[in-house]
Write a structure and sequence with these properties.
- Helices cover about 50% and strands about 5% of the residues.
- The chain is α+β, with helices and mostly antiparallel strands.
- The chain has a five-stranded mixed β-sheet with strand order 3-4-10-7-5.
- Strand 3 (about 355-360) and strand 4 form a beta hairpin.
- Helix 23 packs antiparallel against helix 25, helix 27 packs across helix 29 and helix 28 (about 610-625) runs antiparallel to helix 29.
- The radius of gyration is 35 Å and the shape is elongated.
- The N and C termini lie far apart (about 105 Å).
- The protein binds protoporphyrin IX containing FE.
């Protein structure tokens, strides 16, 4: 009997009702019935009532207005075996059990953040699948698509649930679990008389209950073994060094113990896990089988697919997760104008190690202090090479450079000389008067501006001062004496080189474009380098002649003397440095030292001008330690704790080299479980790490006090604060930079009072512009006044 006022439908047969109408593919048969009875059809199948909805309008009405009324599920007879339905989410009635499991699933397992953490696991399983296809292709064997995809999906789910490869053929148990689940799926699909006539259930006329009990015993046995093992591991606190998996989430669950369960029973955990396998593996494999079938039936699409395949930058196998690539350009758009800022958004989505492809280059970006610590502590040597940009190959610049040299003998020799002979404390003490002299010249220049009521262009003034300091330390001469034409030429050429190095270059993404020099960058760089090398080599030749003629200099040994004095063993090391190496090394010290220092001090002044109370504290300290009428000397720096905190806080918020100088993998490497191919570039986002909420309270606020009384410094041991990098290739100039930053900024504060120009507002203060180093978008221009007291 059809219930009264039931939706229309075909008349039923005695006993079986509409069973015959369902046919072999009921979803297709129903389309024919729609023609006849409209979009809502009522059926009787044995003792059960069914309604079938066959139009989008009715479906919309159903889901929008009646969802809660129809939120229970029909439980098939076989699903009651071994109380399967009692642990299940998908079969559970609309109530607490369902709500708790569904919440856990949505919020703790399948939420974007957790999926990002497990992206690598899925990549790994897909890599295994591709290897399997390669194998079959080599042996000219056809691919059984649904089986292959089922196994792959199964393995993905297994890794996400238990953190193990469930289909490793060497593990008998695990293959068994897969087989048992396939068995459950098959038994569930057999039309069962007991679903139409529930009273038939106990007779098990088709033997389905028996089969289901067997496969369920098998499957539950496997699942519960994994669960027990994990419970024991957790009791013994075995360190797993892996992201939290689904099983952890289920075991961690704690409910209120009233309406919700206090903990999940082992039965619920087992069944819930089995049903995730059942729900996930079969549906994915069927869908992908259809994708492939449809595509292969459209041969006209194949050339297009192949073209897309070849133009599409391929992410290497088991590479860190990252945004999908666009054809040809890969992830170029993701970098945006200020890549260090854009990368923070990617961290939310893909986790602390992100993999990118830019044209032909592979890049990984490290976005957290923890991962940076692992990188520098355990993988420093594997990634100790540098990526050489196309313009850096002009005039063989890279062959004389320390910062671009591969991790090898030339790098080691130059680094040793730099650290032990040029930038060591003793040598820096000898050259302290030279720096003080340059700072005095800077203060005189400011006084001039004060007198003429002219604003100070802070970055320019500090760039020239740093340049002059470096010039004096290298050549023992004032390079920016305006009376000497040549020398301001060197400064100009170096600024030109810095600017050219900062222009994004297509040839870095597609090396084969290099020789075409589409952007004209090579040509301009050659000119700037000719100019700079010409001037540097003139100084070097003069010095060589002076030394040959033994002209008495009466000055401390400078960097150039050190480089000319060098004598290597002539075997692995060079016996002497070539003139090319000397010229390039000198130019790169100017490039690496002047810009970074001037940018940092510009930020120090910008931040301080927004916080007059910090200026007052810094000035008080300077008066106390240095004395109101004395000059700041480098020997005072150790006692200027507040000034040191100001410089640290500035470098935390504004590291001038926000990604450090990118490293490059010397050979294929394994990092954080990922496979990193040779030549992959590594960007460490020191900027993002310095502003990470996990490490810093109120990370975007300028608050020097946070460093007072703290031992944290920037010498590469505290990975939450690495403006100078860390490891073997950390900044060689740190000891000099440390002195210059404090000497110059301290002198500016001690000798003058500062105020912003009226046209400059505070909102403009934190806006950045990308170059080789990141600087303030609007150069800081300020008025100085002779200090009041
Ligand atoms: C505020 C000032 C400075 C900052 C923030 C800074 C930052 C950096 C950073 C982040 C690196 C890359 C580190 C890594 O790969 O882990 C670096 C490398 C380097 N820096 Fe600095 N730097 C500064 C000043 C200087 C100065 C004054 C000099 C020399 C006169 C200098 C010379 C170098 C050199 C030669 C390297 C390459 C080291 C190598 O590859 O082994 N830097 N710097």
């Amino acid at each position: 009997k059809r219930p009264s006022n039931f939706p229309p439908g075909p008349p039923g047969w005695p006993v079986i009702g509409n069973m015959l109408e369902l046919g072999k593919l009921p979803h297709r048969e129903m389309v024919a019935l729609k023609e006849k009875y409209g979009p809502v059809i009522g059926l009787r199948v044995g003792a059960s009532n069914l309604i079938v909805i066959s139009s989008a309008d009715v479906a919309a009405n159903f889901f929008k207005n009646h969802d809660a009324e129809f939120a229970d599920r029909f439980v098939h007879d076989v699903s009651k075996c071994r109380d399967y339905h009692k642990g299940s989410l998908s079969l559970s009635p609309y109530g607490t059990h369902w709500r708790v499991l569904r919440r856990i699933c949505t919020v703790e397992m399948l939420v974007g953040k957790r999926l990002n953490e497990t992206a690598a696991v899925r990549r790994k399983c897909v890599d295994q699948m591709l290897l399997q296809i390669e194998d079959e292709a080599r042996n000219l064997r056809p691919i059984h698509v649904p089986q292959l995809i089922f196994y792959t999906s199964f393995n993905i789910l297994g890794n996400m649930m238990f953190s193990r490869d469930l289909l490793d053929p060497s593990c008998k148990d695990v293959l068994g679990l897969c087989k048992a689940i396939i068995g459950i799926i098959e038994v569930s699909a057999v039309p069962n008389l007991a679903d139409a006539y529930p009273w038939l259930g106990r007779w098990d006329l088709q033997g389905l209950r028996r089969t289901m009990n067997n496969v369920l015993d098998e499957a539950i046995g496997f699942a519960s073994r994994f669960v027990r093992e994990r419970i024991e591991e957790r009791q013994m606190r075995v360190d797993q060094n892996r992201p939290k998996d689904f099983l952890d989430v289920l075991l961690d669950y704690e409910g209120d113990g009233k309406e919700e369960p206090a903990k999940f029973s082992e039965h619920t955990i087992n069944i819930f896990i089995l049903e995730l396998f059942m729900g996930g593996a079969d549906t994915s494999s069927i869908t992908i089988e259809w994708v492939m079938s449809e595509l292969l039936c459209k041969p006209e699409l194949l050339p297009l697919l192949l073209l897309i395949h070849f133009l599409w930058p391929q992410r290497p196998r088991n590479f860190p997760p990252g945004p999908p690539c666009w054809p040809v350009i890969g992830n170029m758009f993701e970098l945006g104008k200020l890549p260090h800022r854009e990368m923070l958004a990617l961290k939310e989505k893909y986790g602390p190690v992100v993999g990118l492809k830019i044209g032909a280059s592979k890049i990984i970006v490290i976005l957290s202090a923890n991962v940076a610590a692992k990188f520098f502590k355990n993988h420093d040597i594997q990634f100790a090479d540098r990526f050489v940009h196309d313009v850096s190959k002009c005039r063989d610049f890279h062959k004389g450079s320390l910062s671009l040299a591969p991790y090898g003998t030339l790098w080691r020799v130059l680094r040793r000389i730099g650290t032990v002979e040029m930038l060591v404390g003793r040598r820096l003490n000898e050259t302290a008067p030279v720096r003080r002299k340059c700072v005095d010249q800077m203060l005189l220049q400011i006084e001039d501006n004060v007198r003429d009521l002219k604003p100070i262009h802070v970055p320019q003034l500090i760039f020239y001062t740093s340049f002059n300091i470096l010039g004096n330390m290298m050549f023992s001469r004032d390079l920016l004496d305006p009376s000497c034409k040549d020398i301001s030429g060197l400064c100009k050429a170096i600024i030109g080189m810095l600017e050219l190095s900062a222009v994004p270059n297509l040839a870095d993404a597609y090396p084969w474009l290099g020789r075409l020099d589409l952007q004209g960058l090579r040509c301009e760089m050659n000119n700037a380098l000719d100019e700079a090398i010409g001037i540097a080599s003139r100084f070097v030749r003069e010095r060589i002649e002076e030394r040959q003629m033994r002209v008495e200099q009466n000055r401390p040994k400078d960097f150039l003397d050190v480089l000319l004095d060098y004598e290597g063993d002539g075997k692995e090391e060079p016996a002497k440095f070539s003139e090319h190496t000397i010229n390039i090394f000198i130019l790169e010290l100017f490039m690496g030292g002047a810009d970074t220092t001037s940018i940092t001090i510009e930020w120090v002044m910008s931040e301080l001008l927004c916080k007059p109370e910090c200026v007052a504290k810094a000035k008080d300290e300077l008066n106390r330690v240095v004395g109101p009428n004395n000059k700041l000397e480098e020997s005072h720096i150790d006692e200027l704790h507040y000034l040191q905190a100001v410089v640290k806080e500035t470098l935390r918020l504004h590291p001038p080299v926000p990604f450090l100088v990118p490293r490059k993998a010397i050979k294929d490497a394994k990092f954080m479980g990922y496979d990193i191919p040779k030549d992959t570039e590594v960007f460490v986002n020191a900027w993002g790490i310095g502003r990470d909420e996990d490490n810093w309270a109120e990370p975007n606020c300028f608050n020097p006090e946070r460093f007072l009384g703290s031992k944290m410094d920037y010498k590469g041991q505290h990975y939450e604060f690495i403006p100078f990098g860390s490891g073997r290739r950390m900044c060689m100039g740190l000891p000099l930079a440390h002195r210059m930053l404090h000497l110059i900024s301290g002198s500016l504060l001690h000798c003058f009072d500062w105020e912003l120009q009226k046209s400059v507002t505070r909102d403009m203060m934190d806006v950045e512009k990308m170059g080789v180093a990141v600087r303030k978008a609007e150069a800081l221009q300020v008025m100085a006044k002779k200090r009041t007291s």
